[in-house]
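Hi, here's the filled form for the chain we discussed.

Project: internal
Contact: R.S.
Residues: 186
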Amino acid sequence: MATMAGRWSALVIATTLACALAGAAQASTAKEIDAQVDAALVHLREQIPGSRSALEKARGVLVFGGVVKAGFIVAGESGEGALRIGGRSVGYYSIFSGSVGLQAGGQKRDIIMVFLEDEALKRFQKSSGWKIGGDGTLTLIDTGATGIIDSATLNQPVVGFVVGQTGLMAGVSLDGSKITPLKPDR
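And the returned structure, exactly as it came back:
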């Protein structure tokens, strides 16, 4: 009996999660997405020393502000963002991932992907969808105990930052996340 109650609880939580993420995945307006992108870039500059140099070297920056990750056994992550080149939004995208395992909680975070090589940016722009770890390799920046970005890391084609984390879910991995183009309302 207790096992059946536990399964029902997990099913209810998973269904609630799916509904919440589906609502979050609906396209916002371009203006709303750009406002989230602006806020995420402010968080990055404030929280990660050395991020300014990465942004200055960038050929393009893909920014997802306020990405929601939540789950209990089954988890999902969803958000919207923009690709900026020369400080201007040139395309809009959604990010989604799902996972199963021992996890519980939720968090909201900003994901920033910095394209440091022209070829990597061109491959991303030509794709109709991009899977991190499959179609594209992303090196996540870890400042470690020093809080300083390792300059060797900035020699990678695409580097990523995850900032503004709040909530209970620990561990950062973007492998398997699917990025697809959006056509938001203006």
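Let me know if anything looks off before we file it.
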